[in-house]
Request: fold
Amino acid sequence: MIKVKISAILFVGLILALPYTAQAYPVSTVDIVNTGYGANEIISVWGGGQEGLNVHAGVYTLDKTYGAGEGKLWSNGPIGGFCTELSELAPDSTLSYNVIELEGGPVPTSFLGGAMGSEKADYIRELWGRFYDPSWTYNGPFYWKQNREAGAFAAAIWEIVYEDLPASPLKWNTKIDSTPGDLGFRCDYDATNIANSWLHALDGTGPKADLRVFSYKGSQDYIVQVPEPTTIALLGLGSVLSMVRRKRNAA
Reply:
């Protein structure tokens, strides 16, 4: 009987968790504030309307205190994310961010003339699936290799977001602005060879991460990874166990 009850609870927990991934919520938000950085480097960038601006390239640590809709997928507490736009600042007070699909960011879309779109989003999903290292998001101190690689990863994201799509992944180059006009991206960073090698490997055959954008018009947008299904299922199980306890106490 005990095994049957536990199996039933697990099943119900999974069912409760499924709606977050199986349907779109009309409003999905997270309340977050930037509280610091994971692994990162200061690099100079040209792109997104900036000319030689020194920025933190790497993981931004976001403290989440509330979520609605899909925003409930992330537990309250620290979340690691990567900046998708160079024209806005990190939030220094808690703001309610929209949770949107990766291809719909960054917002506002006026500088790019539209959202990044599905092709660029797929490049970023594969970049993340192949090369993202979760150790970059832990509390420091970080080794110099972690800082270099996190900085290179951020540069690779900005290259994808701001450059026109090249005819071949082999033509991605974070050292050179290859897009005419105001668009394009390049950076002054001694680990651009790492960023370029990762970009050149993106052939569509690698694993693709499940990503979203935390978006707020007026503050930096961030790319974040959706928690693994097992984590979501455990959150659903926790809700079921809490309901069982309340019913038992009421009885």
Q: What stands out?
A: The longest strand covers residues 29-47. Residues 1-25, 230-244 have pLDDT under 50 and may be disordered. The longest helix spans residues 229-250. The chain has five helices and seven strands.
